[in-house]
Amino acid sequence: MPDVRLASSQGKWIVLTTVLGSSMALLDSTVVNVALPRIGRDLDAGLAALQWTVNAYMLTLAGLILLGGSLGDRYGRRKVFVIGVVWFAVASLLCGIAPNIWVLVASRALQGIGGALLTPGSLALIQASFHPDDRARAVGLWSGFGGVGAAIGPFLGGWLVDGPGWRWVFLLNVPLALLCVPVALRHVPESSGGARAPGRFDVTGAALGAVALALVTYALIDGSQGSLAVVLTAAAVGVAAAVAFVRVERRGSDPMMPLDIFSSRQFTAVNLVTLCVYAAFGGFFFLASLQLQVAVGWSALAAGTALLPTTVLMLLFSARSGALAGRIGPRIPLTVGPLLCAAGMLLMLRVGPGASYAADVLPALLVLGCGMVTLVAPLTATVLASVETARAGLASGVNNAAARAAGLIAVAALPLLAGMGPDAYRTPDAFDSAFHRAMLWCAGVLVVGSGVAFATVRTPAPDCTRPECLTHGSVTAPPLEGRRAGRRLGG
């Protein structure tokens, strides 16, 4: 049994290590969007290349995050976590010195691999190291400090872009890694899944999932400007890879994502809601910082700072929202929350050239933030309550991967659906019109998510798994929950 106490010096070092590691991925997910306009101008990149700058990272992260937890179980959680941190830092360095946009995109894909190793490992180290009596408080500290990192990300990113330059958005990860790795090696005990570790790795499943996401994403991004034959071929092969993925997961002896977990109607329903809401969130945060800089004309710092209210509201009130949902059940929060978010995105229709922060931007973000507070914590709790306790980590990992895949597809599809051309972000009026159409799409998807929740979500069984991550600061995906039992770590 793990026996490290939170009050001990080793306990504090472990928390510091995991916060530093997870903060690298959290910061990266929030600061890059703010830097996109400057990246595009400096590297002479079109909108499609900027989409790939975001999606290359999300693609490898979403495709490999479940596998990353299994690697930690087999080879040692500290070892895999440290490898992930080093990998992420090296990839960040390559991003920072990239001579052109496609080297940057390739380096972002490498970053995603590092993120898939370190993101599950950060929470896994806490759960494998701390005494059970201290584990919940340790997770609370990890989650809270990680949320603070996510909150300052847009502000920090804007300051770096306007100051030393966008390359420092990536180079910032290098000193964090140089601090994190020696602390981890010196103070964090090694642990593994032992007899519960997976017998083999579902490499085929992971590869098919990544190929399916990559080809569908390519078809969506290139849909309005590429060769029709190439786009249709990519889409067809991507769908075929997705079908093959399902067959492999159904028939495999040790699948990465056992499909029988979807036998729970509640679990399936909540994941459908997840797809809807995180598609809208991913599309919104990709386009909002562009809108504030391109159409409204604000600096990167002003645009990044403007987006802070949503994360701050989640940090302050998500735990209370989770407690309320525990009393009244998840159906109302998961129905009302997406509707509030949809209202916030409709209020963004007022944001354009000459917009005022106090009169136009802030009200929209406050309503959006309230909606996120209402739904994110209950969503996580309901996912865990939909399966037996032994599968909580797997359920959380699947839900987290679904959210990231939804954001990935949204970033690829929204510009196509909104009619954004390759140079739209260079023309304020054209981008403003397309942004407004995109917000209507986001609001519509959220309304669909609300309808799914109202029609399908019911009160979980009394014997449900209570999430340990009660503080939520990430806007890109639900928080991961580690396994209390079972073979894999979903996060």
UniProtKB/TrEMBL annotation:
Membrane topology: Multi-pass membrane protein
Keyword line: Antibiotic resistance, Cell membrane, Membrane, Transmembrane, Transmembrane helix, Transport
A Pfam family it matches: MFS_1
Domain Major facilitator superfamily (MFS) profile: start-end pairs: 14-461
GO cellular component assignments: plasma membrane
Iron-sulfur recorded as keyword: no
Ubl conjugation recorded as keyword: no
Membrane spanning stretches: 12-36, 48-68, 80-103, 109-126, 138-160, 166-189, 201-221, 227-248, 269-290, 296-319, 331-349, 361-385, 397-418, 438-457
Cellular location(s): Cell membrane
Molecular function via GO: transmembrane transporter activity
CDD domains: MFS_MMR_MDR_like (cd17321)
GO biological process: response to antibiotic
The name this protein goes by in its record: MFS transporter
Species in which this protein is naturally found: Streptomyces griseoviridis
